[in-house]
Structures are given as structure tokens and as C-alpha cells.
Specification:
This protein has about 475 residues and is of the alpha+beta class. The protein has 19 helices and 16 strands.
Length: about 475
């Protein structure tokens, strides 16, 4: 009895172990076996829906809404839009190209095109797409304000005003049913639609940029006279005149090269000086007779860029512009000196804002007025002559020929009929040499300790001493020694 019972128990344990190995394998393989319904759904999800040539998406890429189509490609949304078109009809609100080129804030456009803001750009573009077909005719457009869900997950308000004009948010529909295809429709709108989430991202990023853009400050400076810390200069209010004189703000030395393209303005630029300089140069060309000066400012030197920078920083300038006839009289020797174009033109620039009326009133009142120039330390002299203003001295003088060619409050251009040169300094001032007409300097006689002052004798005593000399008695008189 013991042996058969032992064998039966052993056989039962072996069968139980084999059954335990088979059951887990069946449990592991069971989730991998899809049902018929699940298999059909899975096959639909895995297959890619094709887009034919008559699709609304193809029409968008080939339409005149080129700016929107370019943004869609940059946002990598072609596959998402293909899936949306494959699931059903869509409605696309396309802003006109001008709204994305010129009307859009450049800072906001730069924010959208940054690679790190790709999600914001995608939400912005999907905010213009409805997952349903909406025509403008047959009363499909809602008269009252209605919220529709967009592909971005945010609601878009659709309404109509009192003139039955269709509105999408705050933008008006300018071209309803611009493109109609079997799987969707495109409506042209006047401006870009910005969802609240994208606007918040832009405001947050701009605030962070403003906070993080802190310029490093150097170590405090000590005044060597008082041995105390120097106090920082008070901030200059917007539009106030600059604190430093114009000569300190000028470049160390102008270069003889074409003017480079203006770079981004600094934080202290309160005026658009480059545009103002461009305007006054165009005015010179259109006025006629000042083409040589305009060519020197733009092509031969970098003075146009230098002037634009100074005006952007708040300085004002008055340009005494020689006409073409005056520039043609310049000799080769005058132009061959190093830096001669810049030095000549610097002498024609006054760091003040003067008009023909102000200069004429000044010379009428004071007779002769000396104006500072950008060519230190030379000054240009103005005086009244023949009912006008005359600059310079002698043969090198020039008359105010064309008054107020250009005046905009920052730059004043006054036409003159000759090229001005600084007066030649006298050699007696510079080298100390004596000129022919100058009187020789008188020197005081040297006085020593042994020298005695010689008494002066009158004419009567001189005659008496002379008579005593004939008789040999001169030596006896002390006065005749």
C-alpha cells in the first residue's frame, strides 16, 4: 500500500508543476492577441491618411497667403493639418500678407520665430483652424457671438456686427469663402489672431528679458582730489539735451571708407538720427546743386553714419553746405592732405541748431559772431554783408546762398557759395619768430654790484670841460672826469 500511494503523490506533484508552467505563458500571451474590433481600430490608426491635390491644405500652400503658408512650414504643422483634414472638414482663417509683414510687431515676430518658442507658434497657427466646415452663405455664420473650439484647444468668438459684417474675434473677414474645397474652406481676415496663452507667453518672456538685461557695473571710482567716492551722474530724462559736449561724443577719428550700415541703436538713443540724416541727404540731392557734398558724406567718408549717431544721442547740428561750384574749385593740394575731406566738412558743421533767421538776427545785433565747429579748436566767423550772412575772412569768405534747405528741429542745412578754411595762424604766434614789421623787443640794462651810475652832464658843463682841456686843467675838476 505504501509504494503505490507514494507513486501517486509523486505523479500528482509532477502534473501540478507542468500545469503551473503553462498557465503563466497563456497569461503572458493573452494581451497580445487583439480582438476583431480592436484590430480594425488599430489598423485605421496606424495607416497614414493621404491628401489629394484638391485638398484645402494644398490650396493654402499654393494660395496668395504666402506668409501664413511659410509660418505653417516653419512650425512643422503640415502632418498635424493633414491628419485634421483626413478626419473631416476644416475652416481656416488666413490673415493677409500685409498683416504678417508690416503690421505685426517686429519684437513679437522675432519671439514667434525663435526655436524655443515653437509651441507658441504652433498654438498661434492652430488657433486659426476650426475642425468643422463653416460657410459664409446660407445663414451658417452665427449672428450672435458664438464660441467655437479651435485645433489649439482654445475657443474663438464668431459674430457679426450691425452691418452684417462677419467678425472673427476682433478681426473682420475681408474675403469670405476665398478658397472652397471639398474638405474645407478658407476665409481671408484682416489681421492675425493671437490667443491669450501666446500673449501671456510673450509678456512673460519680455519681462524676463527686461529683468535679466542688467549691465555690469564697475568698481567705484575715487576722486583723487577729495579722496572720496565719485557720485554717479544723475540719469538724463527722455528727450533732454546730452550732458557731455559733442566733441566728447564724436568718434576718435573718422575713416576714409564708405559709410557702413547702421547697427542697432543703444539704450540712450532718443531720436532716429540715421533716418534724419538720410532725409537731409535726399533733400540735398533733390534740391539740386549739392550732389558733390552728398557723395562725400555717403560714399567717400563715414560722416553720414557719425552724424546719425550724434543726432540719435540728442545732439543738434547745423551744416554749412558748399554747392557744387564751390566744391569744383578745390585744388588737388587741398584734397591730397591726410584726412582732408573730413577736416573740411567738420569745419562746416556747427554743433548748434541755427536757421537763416537766427543767424541773421545774431549778426545784426552783435556785428560779428564766432560759431564753434566740430573741428576743434577752430571757429567760423559770421558777420552781416549786403543784407545776408557772410562767413570767413577775405578771399576765403562765403555768403549764405540757399537758406534753410533742410530744417527739422535737429539738423539744419544752409547752402553757401564757397568752401571755408580755417584762418592761417601767424608765425609769430606759433613759432615765436619775429616778422619784418614787428618792433624788436627792448631789454633792460644789466645791473651788477661793481658798476657805478654815470652822472649826466649838462651842455654848459660839457662846454666848460672842453675849454679846460685846452689848458690842461681838465683833470683837476671832478665833474669833468
Amino acid at each position: 500500500m505504501g509504494a503505490p500511494l507514494y507513486g501517486a503523490v509523486l505523479l500528482f506533484l509532477v502534473l501540478a508543476a507542468a500545469t503551473a508552467d503553462v498557465v503563466p505563458e497563456q497569461h503572458q500571451k493573452q494581451p497580445a492577441l487583439p480582438s476583431s474590433g480592436a484590430g480594425g481600430a488599430g489598423s485605421n490608426n496606424s495607416s497614414t491618411v493621404g491628401v489629394n491635390s484638391n485638398s484645402v491644405l494644398v490650396a493654402l500652400l499654393d494660395s496668395h497667403y504666402t506668409e501664413l503658408a511659410e509660418l505653417v512650414e516653419k512650425a512643422l504643422l503640415l502632418q498635424s493639418l493633414e491628419d485634421a483634414v483626413g478626419r473631416g472638414n476644416v475652416t481656416i482663417f488666413a490673415p493677409r500678407n500685409e498683416a504678417l509683414e508690416r503690421d505685426l510687431d517686429p519684437e513679437f515676430r522675432a519671439f514667434l520665430l525663435e526655436p524655443r518658442n515653437l509651441r507658441s507658434l504652433q498654438r498661434l497657427l492652430l488657433f486659426h483652424v476650426l475642425p468643422s466646415r463653416l460657410h459664409s452663405a446660407s445663414g451658417a455664420w452665427p449672428a450672435a457671438s458664438t464660441a467655437r473650439m479651435t485645433l489649439s484647444g482654445e475657443h474663438l468668438e464668431l459674430s457679426a456686427d450691425a452691418d452684417s459684417r462677419m467678425l472673427v474675434g476682433a478681426a473682420a473677414v475681408t474675403k469670405p469663402d476665398a478658397v472652397v474645397r471639398p474638405d474645407g474652406v478658407i476665409h481671408g481676415i484682416e489681421r492675425l489672431l493671437v490667443p491669450r496663452s501666446v500673449q501671456e507667453d510673450f509678456n512673460r518672456r519680455r519681462s524676463l528679458a527686461a529683468i535679466s538685461a542688467v549691465l555690469p557695473t564697475g568698481a567705484p571710482e575715487v576722486d583723487p582730489r577729495t579722496h572720496r567716492l565719485k557720485k554717479p551722474a544723475p540719469p538724463v530724462p527722455l528727450g533732454a539735451p546730452p550732458v557731455l559736449p559733442v566733441w566728447d561724443a564724436m568718434a576718435p577719428g573718422p575713416s576714409i571708407a564708405p559709410a557702413p550700415a547702421p547697427g542697432p541703436n543703444s539704450g540712450k538713443a532718443h531720436f532716429d538720427g540715421h533716418s534724419q540724416v538720410k532725409d537731409f541727404i535726399q533733400t540735398l540731392v533733390l534740391y539740386g546743386g549739392y550732389n558733390e557734398l552728398a557723395d562725400i558724406l555717403v560714399n567717400l567718408t563715414s560722416l553720414a553714419t557719425e552724424m546719425g549717431r550724434l543726432v540719435s544721442e540728442g545732439y543738434v547740428l547745423t551744416v554749412l553746405a558748399p554747392n557744387d561750384e564751390a566744391m569744383a574749385r578745390l585744388t588737388t593740394d587741398q584734397l591730397s592732405e591726410p584726412g582732408s575731406p573730413e577736416n573740411i566738412l567738420y569745419y562746416h558743421m556747427v554743433p548748434e541748431y541755427q536757421t537763416e533767421e537766427s543767424m541773421y538776427n545774431a549778426v545784426r545785433r552783435f556785428g560779428t559772431v564766432r560759431y564753434d565747429t566740430l573741428r576743434l579748436p577752430h571757429k567760423v566767423t559770421a558777420r552781416e554783408a549786403d543784407g545776408s550772412v557772410k562767413f570767413g575772412h577775405g578771399e576765403g569768405s562765403a555768403y549764405l546762398f540757399d537758406p534753410d534747405i533742410y530744417t527739422d528741429g535737429r539738423i539744419s542745412v544752409q547752402g553757401i557759395d564757397a568752401v571755408l578754411f580755417p584762418p592761417v595762424e601767424d608765425t609769430a604766434k606759433s613759432g615765436g619768430a619775429v616778422t619784418a614789421g614787428a618792433a624788436p623787443a627792448r631789454k633792460a640794462p644789466a645791473v651788477t654790484g661793481t658798476a657805478k651810475s654815470k652822472l649826466r652832464r649838462g651842455q654848459l658843463l660839457e662846454g666848460a670841460c672842453h675849454m679846460m682841456g685846452f689848458f690842461g686843467r681838465r683833470s683837476r675838476f671832478t665833474s669833468c672826469q
